[in-house]
Amino acid sequence: MNSLVLFINRIMRYYKKNKFMFVLFVVGGIINAIIFCYLYGNLLPMVQNRHSTEQYYRTYEVVFDEPLDFSTAAGLLKQTTLFTDVSLAFAVTEKTDGTDTSNKQFEFAVCLNDKLPVVKRTGSVDIPTGNEIVISGRLTNDIGDNIELCGRSFVIKGIHTDGPYYISKEMYEKMFGQQVNKIFAISADNYSSGRDKPAEFLSESFPEGDVKAPTLIRLTDRNNSVAFLISICIAYFITSIAYSYLLLYIMESCADENVVSMIVGASKLAVGVMSFWEGVMMAFISSVIGIIIHIALTPVLFSKINMSSVLKYSFADYSFILLLIFVMSSVVVLFTIIRLTKETPATARRMIS
Is-above-0.85 flag for pTM? Predict the structure, then answer.
């Protein structure tokens, strides 16, 4: 209790000695913390896309070494409501110029839910019929063009960004009969954390298949997030150094207390440690206020200017931000205190003699 009272008294002394600089320092810490919170959520893919409803965060694939019966696969998938869109596909390899080195793999798929599970598309969005096809955007063909694939002629009905070529059920049966060697299943929700129910269902339903969950995309997000986080921390550190001169100025204005402490026997280390914790706590309290302001303004302000409309901060996010700020503030304040406590007790006595 005595330590707390002493701390509050010294902080109030800093405020009374130079109100303008003290307020400037506190406001600088608050603004820096708010900016850190904003950048943390908007630049880190792991946070930004945590609740994303984009398809590539919800797409699961099951690959079979040996073809599976179409009706069997369709029947198993109809037993669950985990997936909004499901496609059964068959991958074939075609030699483009008669050499083994230039083989191309084509994946032809049929939609079970009468809906094309593609991210972006142009042209008609209806399910292909007859010899119609919806092709991948990797090709240069346009809608309405005729295209020949695997010995069959198709009319391009639409174009999507990536993935298989969608054809009619009739054409699929003509080309591959009842064979399926790949499944594309799009879950209703983004299972970026916790139990991955779609992956569990697919593994149990198709034990002979290799289930590929969208974990690779999430892993890439985590790796990219580390690089972005380091950049944000560097920027925060640089700006903290800039306004730490305000802290140095504030503390120097009360240097007479440190001089007196040294004269009555306090070591330079003891004075330095006391000043260090005062500086860290002032920076920490400013950061806490900044985070509280960010939380309070998120519904009315930041939710409207965030890069992602589904961006949500968790308690763990704010705790992690506060920990990072505390560590970086401690380093910055340490440099400030080292500069502030250069005087030895002997020098301190000469200063007031």
Answer: no
Of residues 212, 210, 214, 207, the one with CA closest to residue 193: 214
Assess whether pLDDT exceeds 70 at residue 341: no
Cα gap 186→233, rounded to integer Å: 36
Q: How far is CA 334 from CA 4, 252, 257, in A?
A: 21, 15, 19
Q: Decide if 33 contacts 284 (C-beta within 8 A).
A: no
Do residues 10 and 242 lie in contact, with contact meaning Cβ atoms separated by under 8 Å? no
> What is the rounded CA–CA span in Å between residue 150 and residue 25?
70
Q: DSSP letters along 207-257, please?
A: TTEEEE-THHHHHHHHHHHHHHHHHHHHHHHHHHHHHHHHHHHHHHHTHHH
Amino acid at 315: F
In this prediction, residues 306-332 reach a mean pLDDT of 91
Tens of pLDDT along 162-211?
678 999 999 999 999 999 999 999 888 888 767 889 999 999 999 999 99
76 or 262: which leads in pLDDT? 76
Q: Residue 282: helix, strand or coil by DSSP?
A: helix
| R_g over Cα of the chain | 32
Query: Which residues make Cβ contacts (< 8 Å) with residue 172, sequence separation at least 6?
Result: 90, 108, 110
